[in-house]
Amino acid sequence: MRALHFIAWLPLASAFNSYRSTLTDCLNAGSVPILLTSSPGWSQEIAPYNLRFTPAPTVRTAVKCANKANVKATVKGGGHSYGAFGLAGTMVIDMMEFQNVTLDAATGIASVGAGLRLGNMATKLFQLGQRGLPHGTCPGVGIGGHATLGGFGLDSRLWGLTLDTVVALDVVLANGTAATVTATQHGDLFWALRGAGPGFAVITQFHMKTFPAPSVNINWSHSWSFSSASAAAAAFLAAQNWGQQNAPKELGYGIVVGPAGGFTLRGVYYGAKSDYEAIIAPLLALMKSVTGGAQPSSSVQVLGWIDSLTALAGSSLSTPVQGYDLHDTFYAKSIDTKESATLSITALQGLFKYLFTTTPPGGAQWFILANLYGGPGSVINSFPPSTDPSSTSCYANRDGGYVWQFYAFTGNSQPPFNPAIITFVKNMVGSLGAEAAGLPAYAPYADPQFTQTEAQVRYWGAGVPRLKAIKSQVDPKGILYNPQGF
Ligand SMILES: Cc1cc2nc3c(=O)[nH]c(=O)nc-3n(C[C@H](O)[C@H](O)[C@H](O)COP(=O)(O)OP(=O)(O)OC[C@H]3O[C@@H](n4cnc5c(N)ncnc54)[C@H](O)[C@@H]3O)c2cc1C
């Protein structure tokens, strides 16, 4: 294990003075670099993506020191947790220096340092061997929180979630010892780390399956706008059901709803343009009939792998290792619908009525995203449920249909945050009615409004008892901390 780069928030309260001296003595003895509240660059280094959260002062140090001092430690990867959970500990371990990417040409297994952000990782994998793996679209998201909780990209129905590609993890356990974890070595921990990772170990390196990057990628979108909520709901129902029943796994498929009174179907087809056209033609015919012949505003681009990722990101894939400075100030909720049932016309009418008649508070902006995780041949749903004895991942929603995200942010993405935005988002979900109440939620879209108990049930469902048992074995003192985890 290489030296970690630690952030220490040193509280001034006298009750913490003994922690502080134990921690700093321990760190200094091990020559661990420490960033203090008084250090240059402090404010920038600790800024989370979601500026709604301003973490209280705390301490940065190594796991052994945390153990010795008996303080709760969290790990910061890319800092993109919706609840800024990487910064929630008394001590924060910043993985920024773990930037290595290597590729074994014979096996296609990539070894990726836990400090990588997705854009830099994708670029490097392509440079090393024209390879790729499934992951989200935002280049600044860190692999640390992404591959431990989920990791969805438009290629995930073809290749799986990011966590499904993980074949081994190099970790530091809560007692400060290092281990390599696989399906057959520390199998219980491997199961826990692939879905509920934060709080079970500090991951220093991921070993992941890669795939030949497709040379032809069709980035496509078709948008419609509507003058009434009922027309929008009827068209949405058709698009939702078509995707779940017909979209082949090579067709990344999502629906984006925005304030302009309509929605956009968009995704990537991983294959030839002629195949894309043959697959999408029945959808466009269906949409024409349900919209009374409306012409969509369309874009279809044939792109190489890196250009496709860049177009999805809407920016360069390159992010700085130090001094990352993109942020938002927001609240979001998610629901995972089931493969067995799409949302009904009644639920969708409730939602669009709400969207057509409600003004967001204080100039807030919003979007809703429904990405297809299930559907014909989806690799995400090809794995056994987390409770199956053969399962190697605690990711709970192997029977999912769409993952919906409801997201609202301050008009300029900066604080101050108006708490009425939280109510606005909750009411979006509420407008769907009873069908949406109690559905599972997607752990990477952490909802800080959940109590810990509710979060556990929504994210990990029937896997909760086993996760609790594993936590008590690997971290009995509760040193590694995830506010909604174990
Ligand atoms: C703008 C934006 C776009 C997004 N797009 C997508 C998307 O397309 N698809 C998708 O699936 N998700 C997406 N997400 C959600 C994202 O996957 C999660 O927020 C993810 O947890 C962020 O990981 P991070 O390392 O950047 O965050 P952090 O805040 O650093 O970490 C998140 C959690 O993981 C823990 N953690 C981080 N690194 C480690 C480690 N090495 N060892 C142990 N625990 C660790 C932290 O302690 C924290 O609990 C997006 C988020 C944002 C803000």
Compute the number of helices. 14
CATH class of the largest domain: Alpha Beta
Q: In the residues, how many domains can be counted?
A: 4
Gross morphology is: globular
Instruction: Report the structural category.
Output: alpha+beta
Give the beta-strand count.
Answer: 18
Strand content: 15-25%
Bound molecules: flavin-adenine dinucleotide
CATH architecture assignment name of the largest domain: 3-Layer(aba) Sandwich
**Fold-level CATH name of the largest domain:** Vanillyl-alcohol Oxidase, Chain A, domain 3
Note the gap between the termini.
25 Å
Helix content: 25-40%
Biggest sheet features: 7 strands, antiparallel
Strand order of the largest sheet: 15-12-14-13-17-18-16
User: Any low-confidence stretches, pLDDT <50, length ≥5?
Assistant: 1-16, 55-60
Give the overall pLDDT as a whole number. 92
Integer-rounded radius of gyration: 22 Å
Task: Describe what you observe in this structure.
This protein has helices spanning 17-29, 42-46, 63-69, 118-129, 143-149, 156-159, 187-196, 229-246, 273-290, 305-313, 345-357, 420-430, 452-460, 464-474; strands spanning 5-7, 34-35, 73-76, 91-94, 101-103, 109-113, 131-132, 166-172, 178-181, 202-209, 211-212, 217-225, 254-258, 262-269, 297-303, 330-338, 365-372, 400-409. The protein is an alpha+beta fold. It starts with a strand and ends in a 12-residue tail after the last helix. The structure holds flavin-adenine dinucleotide (FAD).
